[in-house]
Structures are given as C-alpha cells and as structure tokens.
Amino acid sequence: MLQADSDNKRPALLDKTITQPPRRTRFVDIVQGSVKLAMNAGFLGKPDLDVDAMKARAAKKAGSADFGDPWFERPLKALVKAVESEAQLHETGAHIAVQQCEKVLVDRLWAQQWFAQHPEILSRPLRNPVFVVGPMRSGTTRLHRLLAADKRFNHVRGFETISPVPRPGFSHGARDGRIALAKRIRRVARLANPATLSIHPTGPMQPEEELGLLVNSFWGMKHEAQWFIPSYGRWCEGEDAEPVYRHMADLLRLVGWSQQASSLRPWVLKTPQHMLDLSALLKVFPDARFVFTHRDPLRVVASSASLAWNQTCIYSDHADASKVGSEWLRKTRLQVDSMQAARKHIAPDRMIDIDYEDVDTDWRNAMRRIYTFLDLDIDRAWPAMEAFARRAERLKRHPHRYSLAEFGLSEDQVLAGMGSYGRRYEEKARQRVTES
C-alpha cells in the first residue's frame, strides 16, 4: 500500500534516505591508474578519436572500405565533437570510446560484406513487428521479455545487440565468438559497477533491446547514458532518423538470417529511443503495432538519472550528479512530448496503453490485454511467461534503489517539468492512496 507524504499528501514513492549518488568501484580507479601510468611511460599511445583515422584503422582490420550509407558520418562527427568537448573522460574512458567507435565501424564494414555475399538477407520480410515503447525505466524490459518468451515472436538476444553483425567465417550452428565477447563485457561491467546489472539485469542469451542496431549508426540515448554529452543529444533531436531505422531494419534482417529465424514470425522489439523517433520508425515499419508503457514520472526521472549516473561515473572523474539529473528530466519530458505528438498519426487499433503499476499489481491480466490486442491465443504462451516471471522474481533480491535528491531534483520540480503528463500521474497516485 502506498503511504501518503505527511507534508503534501502526495504518495511517497522514492527512497528519501538516499541523498548522494553511489561511487564507482575501486576496480575502475585501479584500471585508470594503470592506464595513466602506461601512457606516461610511453607504453600506451594517446587515444585518437579522429574520424578519418578511426575509419582507416577499421578498414584495415576488416579488409574493406565500404561502410554503407555514408549518412552515419554525421552523427559520428557530432558524437566525437561532444565527447571531446563535454564528456571529460579520463584516459581509460577515452581509450574505451575509441575502441567502441572502431568496433561499430568494423561491424558496419562486415555488414556490407554479408549483404554482398548473401543478397537474400535484404529481401527478408519484417512483418507486423510489435514495438514496446515507453520512457526509460517504465517497464518496457519486463513486457518485452514476457512477449519474447513466446516462440511465436522473434527477438534480439543480448550478444546480438552488443555485436549485431556476425564475424567473417560465421556459419549457422557453429561456435559464435560474439557470445564469448558478450560474457567478457558482462564480467567487466560487474567489476566496474555491479549496480548496472541490478538496474538492468541481462545476459548474452537473454532477450534484449535492439539498442545496438541503432548504435551501429552512432545514434541514440545509449551514448547519452554512457557519457555526459548534451550537445550530441540535442543534435540528434534535430535530425530525421529515417536513415538510422532503414539501417536498423537491414541489421534486423541480418540478425534473423544468422539465427535462421522464420521471417513469418513477427519481431518483438523495444528501446526507449523509439519515443523520440516514432515518425521515422513508422516510415520504415508501416505495419508496426505498439504497446505503450507509462509510469509515474517521479520514478522514471529518478531511475533514468540513476541508470545514466552509474555508467557516466565509470568513464569520467568529473561526473556531476545534478547535471545528470537536470538533463534526464529534460530528456524524459522530450520523450513524452514526442510520443504524444506521434501517436496522433497511429490508428487506435494499432496501439495499446499499459501502466507500470498495473503490471506490478497483476502482470497476467496485463498480458491478457496485450494478447487480445494482438489477436493471439495466450494459452500457448503461459508456461514460458511463468518461467520468465519466476526468474525475474529471484532478481528482486537486489532491487534498484534511487532517489531524486541524489540528483539535485525535487518532486515538485519533476512534476512541473513534466507538464500535463506529470499532473495526470500525480492525480492518479493521489487516487490510489485514497482508495487504499
């Protein structure tokens, strides 16, 4: 039962005992110290984020210079400019930034090689995909994984969002080195900051959002959650994302081909970035169906800021929690406003709204509503969904704890910043308290 705040009769939703953001682990400081010593001693060179130099190194590794649609260079240049001028990365963080950018460039080169070798990949249909769309931390992951448990849907797995493009020499049924890479990255992430895996539990073979397919165009909020680069975010917000989604669709075809997944099954997809890009998404996926998720903005903003902070502080010695909080309040409002504007162009029979609180109270009933909307028999899906729910319940032993205060925000500030969306949720929360 929700408890009313004694000062303003508003339901208490957050852990108000948390007033300072968490520190990164000692492991990060040890690695950073070692990298700094190696650079000072001349054993390790200065990280080079020059776009042409990174492209040249990637081309040498991949043995090709065909990156596909050159449009990607525009977001890449905006990203590099913001990283160099705003992110204040320490030496290790800068080296990791170079490695990440070059990995994406190599993946783009390999993708073009696969498309040339197997032109049938690009003819694979993407019929009636289902997109779970909502603000960060609004329950999209839970609904996405419940749907992905149903074998009637295709989905992207964790290792495929890290590395959506198979390596040269890949063959169906053979050992896939991308899985081992994903396991190593997960181990390092746990050492760098175990909280990140409590905030978003994942694994190489788990259903995962297609964020990496957007990153392959150097696009999206993944970068903003990793580094404090507000100018890059604003640059993306002013651009048409259609080239990004066309490339994402081709990568989805490649993922399906590498899985040997049936192209007759619809994909179930999700990432909060879609809230900002619905107009582009609709052009590329005109028969898409949408499950829109909603959650109290007090929790959404605080949880989003916490997710971003727990990554940003790994890569920079100068991460500022208040700046992170302010930026994610702005970003959350923009996501909601963009979603509301785009929904006017979606037929009512192609979308359904699901509240986080309703899923928390009775996820089975929420799934029944979704399956009725999708015109699917849910009985076949129950065993797999129940198994996922039991696994997810075990993870609650390490809940994600956060507050607004640790990011310099107040409830009044967030509700005012979220406009009508905030006011609507405040009223719903008061109503729940009254009814309880």
UniProtKB/TrEMBL annotation:
Coiled-coil ranges per UniProt: none
Keyword Aminoacyl-tRNA synthetase in annotation: no
Highest taxon of source: Bacteria
UniProt entry tagged with the keyword Transferase: yes
InterPro entries: P-loop_NTPase (IPR027417), Stf3_sulfotransferase (IPR052736)
Keywords, in A-Z order: Transferase
PANTHER family from the UniProt entry: OMEGA-HYDROXY-BETA-DIHYDROMENAQUINONE-9 SULFOTRANSFERASE STF3 (PTHR36451:SF1), PAPS-DEPENDENT SULFOTRANSFERASE STF3 (PTHR36451)
Protein name: Sulfotransferase
